[in-house]
Amino acid sequence: MAVQERELPANEVLLEVKDLRTQFFTEQGVVKAVDGVSFTIKKGKVLGIVGESGCGKSITALSIMRLLPEPRGKIVSGTITFYPPEGGSVDITRLDRHSAEMRRIRGRHIAMIFQEPMTSLNPVHTIGDQIIEAIQLHQDVDKETARKRAIEVLNQVDIPHPERRINEYPHQMSGGQRQRAMIAMALSCYPSILIADEPTTALDVTIQAKILRNMRDLQRQYGMAIMLITHDLGVIGQMADEVLVMYVGRKVEQADVRELFLNPLHPYTQGLFRSIPLIGLKGKKLVPIAGSVPSPYNLPPGCYFAPRCPRAMDICRQEAPAEYEVEPGHFVSCWLYK
Ligand code: SF4
User: Fold this and answer.
1) Is residue 4, in this structure, part of any structural domain at all?
2) Which domain holds residue 169?
3) What is the pTM of this model?
4) 196 CB-near residues (< 8 Å, 6+ apart)
5) Cβ of 309 less than 6 Å from ligand 1
6) Which ligand 1 atom lies nearest to the CA of residue 306?
7) Does ligand 1 have an atom closer than 6 angstroms to the CB of 291?
8) Tens digit of pLDDT for each residue in 197-220?
């Protein structure tokens, strides 16, 4: 599909997701994995997406990358508009996912890193060959230039002796180094947007802190945007500028990170804060959120959080709440704020 006229001014919006609905068609029924989610990703900013597993965070990311296991998983409506640096705009949902244009966007403009590095790294090729191949796929450079660039990015993600380690296979590296190598591969083409899906969950705390610091430095250096998916509010507090909270495929709250930490409004967000240990709240009793996430095949009518919500009212069990802007830039989908 041809790039259209740019509809938004160059106001730093790189990606605009509008009323996205992604569903899975299974033998047991239809799963509404992403159910009407809207947000924007802005240049040089980190958007954190938080929620329990199964809340639709990763499916939102796979929808943007057009990496859903089609035809079982499908974007059924909504738009995902990407604004390339060279101008114009393109609705990703209307592209053929195997098309040259989608392949160019994926990797060159929007790169993704996963919790498990072996999802991206091939065990039978050296780290260097894989990064060089990614660079040459998206940039018109010779192998020597690509090799220099690969060493440079490995150095930027703190892999020691990159000129030697470039010849190693993934299994010769530690878990933390493999994670860094995957980040290096994603960064090697200077993407405008990096989608990081639980990038440090499998690592120990010290390495996790180092990698997050590293990602933040690189993000500032490149002016890149990051969409950071995590279940960990601590990671969100450390990294994000803006936060979106998801519950069972729906966005329930969105705010600037400081505002969200100081003033969480949705009962689910409040429950998340009460259930995790955070620095500065030492000695505070942790209270897990009662009940469990409803089955995607048997969702309650109205607000999906109602069966677990300590403040649920009659209307909550009948009708889903609309989204209200309670403070400028602070949105919440809850009847309490009508
Ligand atoms: Fe609780 Fe009702 Fe708000 Fe849902 S809409 S979070 S049930 S108060």
Assistant:
1) no
2) 16-337
3) 0.89
4) 112, 113, 215, 226, 227, 228, 229
5) yes
6) 7
7) no
8) 988 877 778 878 878 888 888 888
